[in-house]
Specification:
With 446 residues, the protein is α/β, with parallel strands linked by helices. Helix content is 50%, strand content 8%. Helix 2 packs across helix 4, helix 5 runs antiparallel to helix 6 and helix 10 packs parallel to helix 12.
Length: 446
């Protein structure tokens, strides 16, 4: 009898919840319908993955838009697509960030603007390089129609997008247009666990946020040391643009070094996620090569070839040769090394390895945990990093799906984050219709 009364009480509570939420949705619907411009795009994408502005329906007819939306929904991924006219209310340099802010959901956003195309993504959903490469792939060659371009992009993106479709998409009622999927989900959560499920989600997000902050703090120490060391290199070089013998090539090298130094400092002041540190070390690597070129010109020697930094410590500068080396209990591999470390290895000595502080005391950066992946990635890009780190702690951790999940940010794909997102992932960009002209990649977004 008691069980029956409890069941009846839950039924009444659930019915009341659904009625109240339905009334709220009906009350809000007219406001959504009245929205215009970017606001209309954001409201529509909260309810489904594809939005076509009425003025752009000729580009993607309803049947094709519905088929594309079904494909995305069936995959259950947070991929958002908008087809918009080239109009004043959709400025090229701001529309992606504006749509992301209006929608307020972490995901991958693709926009066909007039005849142009661009995309951006929260980094927890897709890495910046992947977004850039996918975008360039569908913009290469002769212009194509919207349906072909968007389907090509979505087909490739769905296999790489992390996270789940937002609950707000749900199933839409055929008669009154009220989105009921989200209401049923809320009711089910209330019936099964009440506030317990929400509390669990909050705890998980809090743990991820704490891990993110800790990773950034650890990286900040190492990166600040790198920036300081580069600044000291600039001072030791003691180059003056007006000094006797200085030419335009030397002055350009010096200017590139200074620009890299300022860029590294500027990026570091705004770092919120570990992966953003990659931009700092990329800038420092560019700057060190510029200084190596300047030094060679001043000595009357040929400009050195562009090589990766010394594997053992990027502060040693660009490598000068490759050497065979094996970490403890791991296979040997070829690594780029500076002249000094190459001599040490030939003499049977240990190289001068960059160490960082850990709970176990100072350790080589490649045996210090996953937080140093973004730091190393900026120095050793271009796909060579996995081979260099094979068999090390960092290499093993970076090869697991948990690495990206733990250090991808405070939200998962499909989460409602509101305006809490990295604007550099959605800022600027080029809506060119074809060719490798996807500008706006300096911020790492798209």
């Amino acid at each position: 009898m008691r069980t029956r009364l409890i069941s009846m009480r839950w039924g009444s509570l659930l019915s009341g919840l659904l009625l109240a939420l339905s009334a709220t949705a009906l009350a809000v619907a007219p406001q959504a319908a009245a929205a215009t411009g970017v606001a209309a795009v954001g409201e529509a994408l909260k309810e489904g993955p594809v939005y076509v502005d009425p003025r752009a329906e000729a580009q993607l007819p309803k049947a094709e838009a519905d088929a594309l939306a079904k494909k995305i929904k069936d995959a259950g991924k947070p991929v958002f697509v908008a087809v918009l006219p080239a109009a004043a209310e959709f400025p090229q340099d701001k529309v992606l960030a504006a749509v992301r802010a209006e929608t307020g959901i972490t995901g991958l956003y693709a926009i066909r603007l007039g005849e142009g195309f661009n995309a951006g993504a929260d980094r927890a959903v897709m890495p910046a390089n992947a977004v850039r490469n996918l975008t360039e792939a569908v913009k290469t060659g002769a212009p194509v129609d919207a349906s072909t371009q968007l389907n090509n992009f979505v087909d490739q993106a769905l296999t790489q997008t992390k996270g789940s479709a937002p609950a707000s998409w749900g199933t839409t009622g055929a008669d009154d247009g009220v989105p009921v999927g989200g209401l049923v989900t809320l009711g089910a959560v209330a019936a099964v666990g009440g506030g317990g499920a929400y509390a669990l989600v909050r705890r998980n997000r809090k743990k991820k946020e704490e891990a993110r902050r800790e990773a950034v703090e650890r990286l900040s120490v190492v990166v600040d040391e790198d920036i300081t060391a580069f600044g000291e290199e600039l001072e030791r070089l003691d180059f003056h643009p007006g000094e006797p013998g200085a030419d335009d090539a030397m002055r350009e090298d010096y200017e590139r070094g200074l620009d890299s130094y300022e860029k590294a400092k500027q990026i570091m002041t705004s770092v919120r996620y570990p992966e953003e540190v990659t931009g700092v070390t990329q800038a420092l690597e560019d700057g060190r090569y510029a200084l190596a070129c300047l030094d060679a010109r001043r000595q009357g020697e040929p400009v050195p070839e562009r090589r990766a930094p010394c594997f053992f410590d990027p502060r040693h500068g660009p490598s000068t040769e490759d050497a065979t080396w094996a970490p403890a209990a791991a296979a040997a591999r070829t690594v780029p090394v500076c002249t000094a470390d190459a001599v040490r290895l030939r003499d049977g000595l240990d190289p001068a390895v960059r160490t960082v502080d850990t709970e176990r005391g100072p350790r080589p950066y490649y045996d210090a945990g996953p937080a140093y992946g973004p730091w190393a990635g900026g120095y050793f890009g271009g796909g060579i990093l996995p081979g260099l780190l094979m068999g090390t702690m960092l290499g093993s951790m970076m090869s697991t799906p948990a690495y990206a999940a733990d250090y991808g940010g405070g939200y998962d794909g499909g989460d409602v984050s509101g305006a809490d997102f990295n604007p550099s992932d959605f800022g600027g960009g080029d809506f060119g219709g074809g060719g490798f002209d996807g500008g706006g990649f300096d911020g790492g977004g798209f």
